[in-house]
Each structure stands twice: as structure tokens, then as C-alpha cells.
């Protein structure tokens, strides 16, 4: 019996990839609530870094590379918040590009504890991004990065307003997510890109780029949004 399968375009999934997909899918299953997702992460965090290892989960690298392209110089001066920080994958990649000042926002106590152990962040906030005000002053960050934070039971569309509030005018918001969630997650299908567009029409931000990228998670494509805050 073969230990591989080919779900997309001839890309071969090993059994370990298929198992990783199933484990990660538990946090994003249809109908999951935010509380249920946090409970899942409290159990999953011990395997999280092995399951979502580089080469299998490439979102953090994609996000950091996008930021490095946007900021070719003076990276050490930029103040960044890593939204849905998990155990710190994005921060690790940002630090490799020379970004020095990174804070974390992560609602899972277990995930945040692991991130704290790594010493990657200056300040850590144990909060979920929603429309509710965060304990962060307005216009604090040069950049807000969200990687893997949008999905079933995760960040609601209304969280965009808080992202705009805490990011400085002239700053950038980078959101990296699985492309299929735009159609598979009911709230996003009806709201996410329409809300992004309406915020642009209202003069809140300006689209810099919208890129579909391959192999975001295993062979599944991702999408990278870059917006400049007005």
C-alpha cells in the first residue's frame, strides 16, 4: 500500500502530511466556536510545532517575506504586532529578517506560554481580536501581521476595525490566510472581502497587494493581503 496520496496537481501527501492536516483541521472544523477552538489549542499546543513545521506550514515564512519586501530597510525601527501569534512562528521569521520590536496577541494561554518561553516578544497580550477594544493604545504599531488567524471560529470580520485602530496612519496591515476559507467559512464568504472593500471606499486603508501563493499549508494555496492604513 502506498504511503502517499495526490490531492492536488500531482503533489504527493505523505501519511505525516495527511495526519497533520487532520489534526490542524480540528481547530477549524465547521461550526466550531471560539471557546471550543481555544480548548482544542490547549490540548493541541504540545504537538503544534511538530505538526505545523516549516515546509508543511509555510504561512509564517510567507508573511515575514512579505513584510521584508515591504520594508527593505530600517526594519529594526519598526514596531510590529503579531496577531494570533500562536507559539511564535511568525516572530521567528521576522527576527530572521532583522525586525527587532515585535509584540504578540494570542488568546490561547497554552500557546502564549510557549511563545513567552522563546523570548521573541517584547509584550504579550492574551486577547482575541474582535471588535472589542484591545488593551493597546490607538496608533501604536507600524505594522500588524495576521497569519493563520482567520478561519472557522477564529477572528471575526469585525476584528478589522481594531486592526485599523492600533496601526499607525501610513502603517501596514498584512493578513495571510488559507484561500479556501474565503468560500468555505460562511461569515467570510458573505463579509470579509466586501468589508475590506468598503473600508477602502471609506478611506480607512488602501490595498497594496492581494496575492494568491502556493503551498501555504502542505499544497493548499494561501492568500496575502497587504493594506496601507490611511
Structure description:
This protein has 230 residues and is an alpha/beta fold. 37% of the residues lie in helices and 27% in strands. The protein contains eight helices and nine strands. The protein has a seven-stranded mixed β-sheet, sandwiched between helices. Strands 1-2 form a two-stranded antiparallel ribbon. Helix 2 packs parallel to helix 5 and helix 3 packs parallel to helix 4. The chain is globular. The N and C termini lie far apart (56 Å). 38% of the residues are buried.
Q: How would you summarize what this structure contains?
A:
This protein has 230 residues and is α/β, with parallel strands linked by helices.
Question: Strands, helices and their partners?
Answer:
Elements: E1 4-8, E2 11-14, H1 15-25, H2 34-51, H3 59-70, E3 79-83, H4 89-96, E4 101-105, H5 109-118, E5 124-125, E6 141-147, H6 160-166, E7 167-178, H7 181-184, H8 186-201, E8 205-217, E9 220-229
Parallel strand pairs: 3-4, 3-6, 4-5, 6-7
Antiparallel strand pairs: 1-2, 7-9, 8-9
Helix pairs in contact: 2-5, 3-4
Q: In what range is the share of β-strand residues?
A: 25-35%
Q: What is the H/E order?
A: EEHHHEHEHEEHEHHEE
Strand order of the largest sheet: 5-4-3-6-7-9-8
Residue share in helix? 25-40%
The total count of strands amounts to 9
Output the structural class. Answer: alpha/beta
| Nearest-integer average pLDDT | 90
Helix segment tally = 8
Radius of gyration, Cα only, in angstroms? Answer: 17 Å
Distance, first to last CA: 56 Å
Q: Extract low-pLDDT stretches.
A: 1-10
Largest sheet: 7 strands, mixed
Question: What is the approximate shape?
Answer: globular
